[in-house]
Design a protein that fits this description.
mainly alpha, two-stranded antiparallel sheet, globular, 285 residues
């Protein structure tokens, strides 16, 4: 039972925002694993994952935690969003170490709080969400992409990424993303390759290990080509077929699946809160 009524002002992002429109779709997660690998393609991010997570035994854990945090903030109240951010900050507090010992470029010590790394993680989430939505659901207008990017910069503030740091528009974000992808450092370091392939070929869980080979297309066909090649993923006839089949299947899923399957649970709870505030009598019946 809800303790009080909710209005649009009670949410971090308004119900008519680009954030709600895009992130609610579960089908856009087709691009999620590629975003996770793109993040660790930056060797300073990859080193943090390698030294402070069970990446080889639980490759989906980091992606799952990221999704929970994103969706809680996207569809939650300011209080819920702040609590989600505190939980992430608690896990990240110990993520630092000796980058020089692994010949990772940049300052000798790495930390999860480096603004460049935070910006890159947010950029991969923008790339993944927009790309997944347009691949599966429908095309987005330039205004919708701009609005979503602004929302994601607000999202970034929950993880200590200053709103004024880095690209301020979607067009600037696209240039920044392309420039980072073109940087030969991204994906070429042994740390990045080791962690990326541990995600793609995990030891556990067994079901994911069995599926790892046929679903490699999530990396070889979705990660931008320069980074894909540096990491050692290869496009094949099978991976192209798999990606095409998955895309067509998810397009159908996004159109005919019931809401309970099509939309994220956090979104469905938020929508219920909104509807209860707008139509309390109708909901009560």
């Amino acid at each position: 039972m809800l303790e009080r009524e909710f209005t649009s002002r009670d949410f971090v992002f308004a119900p008519d925002s680009a954030m709600w429109k895009i992130v609610r779709h579960r089908s856009i997660l087709l691009t999620g694993p590629a975003a996770a690998v793109l993040q660790i393609a930056h060797p300073r991010v990859g080193l943090g994952v390698m030294e402070h997570s069970r990446f080889a035994d639980s490759p989906l854990g980091r992606l799952e935690r990221t999704l929970i945090a994103v969706n809680t903030i996207a569809f939650g109240t300011p209080e819920e969003a702040a609590e989600a951010a505190r939980r992430v900050a608690g896990r990240h507090r110990v993520v630092n170490g000796d980058a020089a010992a692994h010949a990772v470029p940049g300052p000798a010590r790495y930390s999860v709080d480096e603004p460049d790394l935070l910006l890159w993680v947010v950029a991969t989430l923008v790339w993944s969400a927009v790309g997944g939505y347009e691949r599966i659901v429908e095309r987005l207008s330039d205004d919708e992409k701009e609005s979503f990017y602004r929302d994601m910069r607000v999202f970034g503030t929950f993880f200590a990424l200053p709103r004024e740091y880095g690209p301020q528009t979607y067009r600037e974000h696209e240039k920044y993303f392309d420039d980072v992808v073109a940087d030969r450092l991204i994906g070429s370091h042994e740390v990045s390759r080791r962690v990326a392939w541990a995600v793609a070929r995990p030891r556990t869980p067994l079901w994911f290990r069995v599926l790892a080979v046929p679903i490699t297309f999530m990396f070889s066909e979705i990660i931008p080509t320069p980074v894909r090649d540096r990491l050692g993923f290869r496009s094949t006839a099978w991976s192209r077929f798999g990606c095409r089949a998955a895309t067509l299947s998810l397009r159908l899923f996004a159109r005919i699946a019931p809401d309970v399957l099509r939309f994220d649970p956090c979104y469905r709870r938020a929508r219920k809160r909104r509807d209860l505030a707008l139509f309390p009598a109708a909901i009560a019946r």
